[in-house]
Amino acid sequence: MESNCHGRGRWKMKLANGILGMALALTFGTLGALAQPASAAAKPGDESVRTFYLNTFNRYDNNFGMANDANEIAAAVRNTLTPSDHIMLVPGQNAIIIRATADDMAIAERIIKDLDRPKKAYRLTYTITELDGGKNIGTQHLSMVVISGERTTLKQGSRTPIVTGSYDGGKSGAQTQVTYIDTGLNFDVLLDESADAIRLRSKVEQSSIADQVSGVGPQDPIIRQTVLQGTSFLTAGKPLVLGSLDIPGSTRRMDVAVEMNPIK
To answer: Cβ contacts of residue 11 below 8 Å, gap of 6+?
Structure first.
């Protein structure tokens, strides 16, 4: 009888140890399974660092606003990739540094390749025709090479001195303060392109000194000024008349036309 009790006790002990072993195995096995994907995803070898040097630049234009080509490319890459990737723009080197997985790096490379395109160059030729009473009295051609998306200016004329005041120079006597203003023709243009059109934003300004003087003082001239400003869509090789500038105080006027041709 005693032998049977001892046998049953040993059997119960073995059963309890077996159940405990199975519970521990299931517990640690589940934790291991849960921890495995996290550790695998955190492997540093899955990420790489690469530097992309860009053809585009950051520019600031007071008249036509900010044109942040490099910033826009970096923002496009940052908004496309996952938040865990790191994207940094280095303006001084005109480069973007990216730390990402291999799949995200391939996506970033494709985006940069599509957006970082070289700018096209165009030749703009302005034709200024001066008329007096409907009769052509002179034609002038002015050409400039412009880069798509970049502002270009051209000036032709004189710098006219204007007396702005005077001050006591001590032993040297009274000194006159003089400033200079530009008179003549001034062109301020920005040409950009889209998939099916080439847009020209231009400002043509003509200024001159009037024959009469102002009532402020005998040294203060009257500056006559005419401005032609607007947006036009150009076709290569086809002249476009932008408008006419009447020359104040005279019967003359200037017709302004522009022709655009790509430079290959």
So the answer is: none
